[in-house]
Each structure stands twice: as C-alpha cells, then as structure tokens.
Amino acid sequence: xxxxxxxxxxxxxxxxxxxxxxxxxxxxxxxxxxxxxxxxxxxxxxxxxxxxxxxxxxxxxxxxxxxxxxxxxxxxxxxxxxxxxxxxxxxxxxxxxxxx
Length: 100
Hints:
Blueprint: H1 3-8, H2 13-51, H3 59-99
Region (Disordered): 67-100
Organism: Citrus sinensis
InterPro entries: SSU_processome_Utp12 (IPR007148)
C-alpha cells in the first residue's frame, strides 16, 4: 500500500534491504515445501491409479465408441431422410405425369 512512500524515504532503505533478504529466503522455503508436497501428491495419485479397480478405467475409449455409434446412427437417419425426400419428389413427378 505504501510502496511508493517507502521507496522514496531514505531512512526506510536499510529496513527494506533486510526485509528483502528475509522475504526471499522465506518465499524460497515456501516454494520448496509446495514443490515437495505436489510431488508427493502426484506420487500418491499414481499409486492410487495403479491400485484402483475403477469401473470406468477405459472411459475415454467407451465414450469414443458411443460417439461413433451415435454419429453412424445420425448418418443413417440423414440418409433415410434424403431417400424419403427423393421418393417424395419422384412420386410428385409421377403424379404430374398421370394427370396429363
């Protein structure tokens, strides 16, 4: 909050220098602790994944299979609609010839 005032005050400079050294050391300790904890959590996650008998271990493959089936059905429905339209057009054109 008072950064600008502290920097411009000559009497605060020695305190800021000492504080800077202390803060850098503390921040480094915190970063090291966080890095260690993250590595431990990743390791535990891998262990749990190896031991897990989850029902959906291959959920991605199942999802892709379901999506491919759905897309095939959609294509078949689209083709069926197109065929119906064709037959309808052919029927209309044959009805016109019957009236003439």
